[in-house]
Every structure is written in structure tokens, then in C-alpha cells.
Design brief:
With 465 residues, the chain is mainly alpha-helical. Helices cover 62% and strands 5% of the residues. It contains 20 helices and 6 strands. The strands form 3 sheets. Strands 1-2 form a two-stranded antiparallel sheet. Strands 3-4 form a two-stranded parallel sheet. Strands 5-6 form a two-stranded antiparallel sheet. Helix 9 links the parallel strand 3 and strand 4. Helix 12 packs antiparallel against helix 13. The radius of gyration is 30 Å and the shape is elongated. Bound molecules: arginine. The site of arginine has 11 residues, from helix 7.
């Protein structure tokens, strides 16, 4: 019999029964549901809304159910619709009347809101920890490659020289923003909706400060209608996940390019690449491709929930039951992608020779050549034109700027002198860029230091259990 059977004269249609049920996926909230119920029962007892004896019986009953679920000894039923009613029904079967008192002053609307918040709150530090581990890999790769010159690209055309370390720190900065986004989300969602009831609280002296405190929230939410209608935190969480995945997808794309024969800037470790079923020579970057592909899936999760919530009137609507699967899916996807990506990156081999060969081939020191003239008094635009003509000359004759003779240089401008060759050396071009944020070993060392400090300061405290 349904918990709500009193008002009904017919059994639920079996199609509706299956359609309505969420136990198939929200069983995943069992722990949070029991934690929320224990806090609620504790408060009910303390406030004298139920007797202390009933409260104690409920709490012991719930703890026993938790242990049994974890031991795999509890079977949930579709007839009890969701995790909330399943657990309440089992409790009542086990302890009788006391179990029937648990739901006093509470609704499934605030119950699910608190369960889901607790769940997301617990996953955020896990994801942050994974991102910080990836940061550590980036730091290591950067430290090993402070002087590994490579071409930087715009429009995927060789543009200016940089280093692999500078590149790694670019991603480290993106990931640092991701961490702070997850932290912001956690900070904003750290309010407890329990006690909001169906939408208008209750007439019992429910102590919301107490349940918020028992559940480890900073404070209770401020408006009960909003409390049971709000899924902003889940959307914010999904958008932080989407941005993180967007970053990983860009990084993946670069890894895919870099390990192609056309680039060969890096080699993936055999353990982190895959073969082809037909082409014996193939070594494929499947991990990077899958991370890139799964990004679309996480965007889908975000758009699903945004769309579910669009135009919903206050307060709870059954539509909102659709909030869980996208969030679970994003969590599973992100928590799988970040560590495997980090491990792939950690084990890849950098090919500095190929990088510097590519850097030498694309006139990426042309800006430096123009800057050379500018530093000798020529206006930049004029210098830019002159170097453009030199590049054009080189292309026609199959040369590079470095292979031109001093006479070639001086034929185009008297300002060139023998020290031009030094000015064109790629290592020098990189390391002269000492401006804050630039690729010089000096500044990249500073950038690495900043990320190291960030990692140390933001490592989530280890929670027990
Ligand atoms: N299973 C529901 C959900 O996940 C719980 C809340 C149900 N509340 C209600 N009034 N039907 O959203």
C-alpha cells in the first residue's frame, strides 16, 4: 500500500507506477537521506515534537538500515517510488509507530532538497582534489621543460616562440579558475533547506538552525518557498563541470595534434594509448579523444537541467525529479576524466628536438627581428613592413631569417648589425620576454610558484570515513 493511499480509491496504474518511480537512480542518495533523517529526528526529539524515546528508536533504526544497505541486504521496491519513501517504509516495517513519526514537520520536498545538496556538497571536494592532482602534474611537466622552446600558434599557424613550460602553465591557470568556481559553488550552496516542509514550513516548533548545524551547513536557507524550488546549485555545479571539461577538451585536442606524425611534439605512453584492429602501425590517443567526446555529454547534462527548470512555477514540481540523472552523470564523467587525463599527461614524453625544429621553421622570430629595428629607433610599423619583405624574400629563396647574410640584412636596412643573429636565436627570443606572464624561464618559474601556492592552500581538508 502506498504511503499516501488514504486519499485514493484506486490502485496506481502500473505504467504510472513505473513512470513515476525514481528509485532506479535516486537510491544513490541513500546515505544522505539517512543522514538528513537522523538530523531531523534528533531535532524533533530535542524540541519535544516527538518523544526522546521515539527519536532514539528512529535513529537506531536508520543506522541499522544504513548498515544493511551497505552490506547489500536491502532491496528497494518500485512501489515505494523513491529513496525517501523506501527508507521510511522499511523503517516503519522494522520499528512500527516510531517510524511513522519521522515525517512529522517535513515533506519529501525539503527532504530531497537536503539530500541532493548534501550529495553535491560531498562530491565537490573530490573533484577539486582531482583537479589539484592534475595541477601537480602540470607543475612537474613545466619544471622539466622551462627551456623547451616550441612554437606558439594563432589560427594554428606558427606565431611566436614559447616554451612547453609556459604552455603547461596556461592550462594550470585555466584549472585554477575551475577550482575557484567549484569553491564558489560550494560556498553559495552551503545552506540547509530542511524544515522548509512542502513549501511553507510547519506549525511545529521546528528548529532549522539546529538541523543545519547537525548536517554541517553554514546556516539554514532564508525562504522556504525558494528552498524547495531551488536547483541553482546543481546548475552552477554542472556549469563548473562544463567549463572544466571544455578546458580538458582543448587540452585533449592539443595532445591529439601533438602526438600526430605531423607534429610529433610528444609521445604517449603505451599504457595510455590504444591500437587499431586493422592497421598494425597505429597508436591512437583514445584517452584524449574520449575526454574531448565526453565534454559534449557534460554540456548535455547542463542543458538538460537548465531546460527542466525553465519556466517552472514555484514551488516543487515533479519535473524536478529529473535533476538527479544529469548531475550523477556529470559527476561520474568528470571524476573518470580528470584522473585518467592526469595520468596520460604524466606519462607522456616530450620531444624537445621536434618542438625546436618546428619553432625554427615558421619565422616565429619575425616579431623579434622587427623589435630589433624598433629598439634602434625605427617606428614599429616601418620595421614590421621591412621584416615582412625579408620573410617574403626568404620564402622565395628557401631560407630562414637566420640564414640570411649580414649583407642581405643591410641591403634592406642599415640599422642591422652582426648582433642581429643573436637577437634571432629562439632561446633568446623566449627568454628576453621577461614581462609578467610571459614565457621567460624566470617568469614561468614565478608562475609555477603561484600555482604551487594555490595547490597548497586549496587542497580540501581530508574528511573522515
Ligand atoms: N522523488 C522526488 C524527487 O526526486 C522526491 C520529491 C517528491 N515530492 C513530491 N511532492 N512529489 O523529486
Amino acid at each position: 500500500m502506498k504511503l499516501w493511499a488514504g486519499r485514493f480509491q484506486k490502485e496506481t496504474n502500473t505504467l504510472v507506477n513505473d513512470f513515476n518511480a525514481s528509485i532506479g537512480f535516486d537510491a544513490r542518495l541513500y546515505q544522505q537521506d539517512i543522514t538528513g533523517s537522523i538530523a531531523h529526528a534528533t531535532m524533533l526529539g530535542e524540541q519535544g515534537i516527538i518523544s526522546q524515546e521515539d527519536a532514539a528508536e528512529i535513529i537506531n533504526g536508520l543506522k541499522a538500515i544504513l548498515a544493511d544497505i551497505e552490506a547489500g541486504e536491502v532491496e528497494f521496491s518500485l512501489d515505494n517510488e523513491d529513496i525517501h519513501m523506501n527508507i521510511e517504509t522499511i523503517l516503519t516495517q522494522r520499528i512500527g509507530d516510531a517510524g511513522k513519526r519521522l515525517h512529522t514537520g517535513r515533506s519529501r520536498n525539503d527532504q530531497v532538497a537536503v539530500d541532493f545538496r548534501l550529495f553535491v556538497k560531498e562530491e565537490i571536494p573530490v573533484i577539486i582534489g582531482q583537479i589539484l592532482d592534475l595541477e601537480k602534474v602540470l607543475i612537474r611537466k613545466a619544471e622539466e621543460n622551462l627551456t623547451t622552446v616550441m612554437p606558439g600558434y594563432t589560427h594554428l599557424q606558427r606565431a611566436q616562440p614559447t616554451t612547453f613550460a609556459h604552455y603547461m602553465m596556461a592550462y594550470a591557470n585555466m584549472l585554477r579558475r575551475d577550482v575557484t568556481r567549484f569553491e564558489d559553488c560550494l560556498e553559495r550552496m552551503d545552506e540547509c533547506p530542511l524544515g522548509a516542509g512542502a513549501l511553507a514550513t510547519s506549525t511545529y516548533p521546528v528548529d532549522r538552525e539546529r538541523t543545519a548545524q547537525l548536517l554541517g551547513f553554514k546556516k539554514p536557507t532564508d525562504n522556504s518557498l525558494d528552498s524547495v524550488s531551488d536547483r541553482d546549485y546543481a546548475i552552477e555545479f554542472l556549469s563548473a563541470c562544463s567549463l572544466l571539461m571544455m578546458h580538458l577538451s582543448r587540452f585533449s585536442e592539443e595532445v591529439i595534434l601533438w602526438c600526430s606524425w605531423e607534429f610529433k611534439f610528444v609521445d604517449l605512453d603505451d599504457a595510455y594509448s590504444t591500437g587499431s584492429s586493422i592497421m598494425p602501425q597505429k597508436k591512437n590517443p583514445d584517452v584524449a579523444e574520449l575526454v574531448r567526446g565526453k565534454t559534449g555529454r557534460v554540456y548535455g547534462d547542463l542543458v538538460s537541467l537548465l531546460t527542466v527548470m525553465k519556466g517552472l512555477p514555484l514551488a516543487y514540481n515533479k519535473d524536478m525529479q529529473e535533476d538527479k540523472e544529469p548531475v550523477f552523470d556529470a559527476i561520474d564523467t568528470v571524476e573518470m576524466c580528470v584522473p585518467v587525463f592526469a595520468a596520460m599527461l604524466d606519462t607522456l614524453t616530450v620531444r624537445p628536438k621536434n618542438m625546436s625544429k618546428a619553432a625554427a621553421g615558421g619565422f616565429i622570430n619575425a616579431t623579434d627581428c622587427a623589435d630589433y629595428l624598433t629598439k634602434r629607433g625605427m617606428p614599429f610599423r616601418e620595421a614590421y613592413m621591412i621584416v615582412g619583405r625579408l620573410v617574403n624574400m626568404c620564402i622565395k629563396s628557401g631560407e630562414t631569417l637566420e640564414t640570411l647574410t649580414l649583407r642581405d640584412f643591410r641591403a634592406i636596412s642599415e640599422l642591422f648589425d652582426s648582433d642581429i643573429y643573436e637577437a634571432l636565436e629562439l632561446k633568446r627570443c623566449v627568454h628576453e620576454r621577461k614581462v609578467l606572464g610571459g614565457p621567460s624561464a624566470e617568469d614561468v618559474t614565478r608562475q609555477i610558484g603561484a600555482i604551487k601556492d594555490f595547490v597548497a592552500q586549496h587542497t580540501p581538508e581530508q574528511t573522515e570515513g
